[in-house]
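During the no-cost extension, the postdoctoral fellow (Dr. R.K.) reprocessed legacy sequence entries with the updated structure-token encoder. One reprocessed record is reproduced below for audit purposes.
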Amino acid sequence: MSSQGEHWLQKRFGTEKRANTFYENQMLDHLSPAMQDFLLKQEMMFLATSDRQGNCDMSFRAGKPGFIHIINKKNVIYPEYRGNGVLASLGNMLENPHIGMLFIDFFTHRIGLHINGTAGIIEDEALTRCIPRPIALHLQQTVEKQVEAWVLVKIDEAYIHCSKNIPLLKKVEPAVQANQMSTASGDFFGTKMYKQQMT
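Re-encoded structure tokens follow.
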């Protein structure tokens, strides 16, 4: 759903014609078959949320291809795996269900897919009551990590992110880390010691 702000700026900067062409040709309120095919191949996404005051948070999610599960063209669902216990993204969704997801194919097509929508949090034991039972059972049987909850997203907007400025990357085997303890403990930046030194 386009905002009043973007329409005001389109008029201010004279981009209304270009914007309208994009709206008409590229924006959907659901996933097209081509978008669904693209989504099933993705292994990562960038997740944008905000609390009720509009304070924003950006996070990253990853999994095997298809970790974002398509229920139908209007709804997708993904698992929130056990993490650091902060639950920042889920907490924001509880206050403000509007979210943005960006999927980028860095390895083949250098193209992205935006999905904006409304999120609902589903606890694992309630999954079979909230989505079709066969789908729920399949998800629970195939997930490989400990799931804190599931996020069901009703799609409001789906549109392309063009390839301009998207780098072409190559997958490689993970390098041996010089500091295994630091990276494994989630303290790559040494923040714990830094904060201790500040006191």
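The mean pLDDT is 92. The two ends are 46 Å apart (CA to CA). The remaining legacy entries will be reprocessed before the final report is submitted.
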